[in-house]
Structures are given as C-alpha cells and as structure tokens.
C-alpha cells in the first residue's frame, strides 16, 4: 500500500519560506496570506514530527532538520516543473484568460459577451473562476477582477464603478421594503446593518448567502430584497429582472478591482471594452 504523503502545498510553502527565510516573502511569492503559509508549514512540521524553523523576532532560521529537508524538496519541485514543461505550449497571442468571481462573470461579463465576440472575433476568451488569492495565483490570468479593498487588489488595480449598494427585488414581489424578506450577502463590510445605520428603521435579513451573485439569484426568483453591488445589478435592472426596492443606497466598503497582469493586445482590448459597458 502506497505511503500517504503530505499535501504538495505544504512542501511548496516550506520551500518558499526556507529559501526566503520569511513567511511574508514566501506568501507574496506564492500568492497566499502570511498566516496561510505559516499554518501550512506548521502542519508539515506536525506531520513530520520535527521543527523545521527556529522562529525569532527578527526572522526565521532553519533547524538541522529543515536544512536537511530543503534540498530534497527543492529538487522534487524542480522535477515536477520539468515534467510539466513539455505540456506548456505557451499562450497564443489571441488567447485571453480572465480570472474573476462567478458573480462578476454571470452578472457583468456574460450578458455583454456577444458584443465583445462580435467586435473581436479573433480573440479566444477563457474565464477562470477565482475567489481567493490562491485561486488567482493558480489561474495565471492575463486580466484579474478581484473583490475586496484597494490594498488587497494591488496599487495598480482600478476600481470598477458604480460602487454603491442598492436594494433590489423582483417586479413580482409587492410590498414595502420594511415588510419584505431580506437577503444578506455575508463576508462583506456593508450589509443591512450598515443600511440601518445610514437610513434608520429596523432591517433583519432572513436569508444568508456567500456572494452578491447568489443574492441576486434569490431576488430574481422573488425570495426577497437583496442588498448588492450596483455594478452587478445593472443588467438585471435594464432587462427588468429586478427593480429598486428603495430609492436610497449606501457606499460599498469593498469593490471590484480590475488589473492587467500580463499586458497584451487582448488584455487591453478586454479592459477597454468592459469599462465601455459599465
């Protein structure tokens, strides 16, 4: 029976941290948070039952076990990279990969995609679902659209607007917002609590979902009033799938940020086209 091995990601985190002697530098290199790298290294230490690093206030240093393990892990990772090289045929000049959330792809990009294809029939578009930093790192996209803060997205990322939160419901759902079920997208700083603090009243959500896109889906089906990004809602409003449940809005504390990772003609054309649609 084959021996069970620790996850490859643990070895990758260890190798990067050992080479840089820093969890922070390793995190930046492999696209994870510092805490995630630290936790993966700790998990590897627990699995191997040895300490690999001496953790000091001024940084890291390798233990004897860590120094013994590093060249073997580095060689194994190099072998894996070499094994996959023959399958890397490169990216064609007319091939474009966009990494973004399902919500952005479904509610902003997809409705207008026929226009992009008609305008640029020579560009082959691949949309890769990505939510967490490791997802974006794995996607190796030309264009990224991340949800979060400017700091999380990077200093060169540009905020897509409009970036306010609005209350939406199905046209078939009648009644005032105060008397209708509310849908809350968790994991964001703005929500019905922020709405209450701004506009008063008492708003308690009944449904909880993990994305604005799911909140929009529930609202379209008449399940209640969703408080979502105006950016995502534009097409649904234009096509009368949803209507405003209240004329007011609140600022979005997070937003959708676009950045061009690999500058190319398709990437620039996609960025310009998307901004035009918005």
From TrEMBL:
Gene3D superfamilies: Periplasmic binding protein-like II, Winged helix-like DNA-binding domain superfamily/Winged helix DNA-binding domain. Pfam families: HTH_1, LysR_substrate. Keywords: DNA-binding, Transcription, Transcription regulation. Coiled coil: none annotated. The keyword rRNA-binding does not apply. Residues 6-63 form the HTH lysR-type domain. Belongs to the LysR transcriptional regulatory family. InterPro entries: LysR-type_TF_proteobact-type, LysR_HTH_N, LysR_subst-bd, WH-like_DNA-bd_sf, WH_DNA-bd_sf. It comes from the Bacteria. The keyword S-adenosyl-L-methionine does not apply. This is LysR family transcriptional regulator.
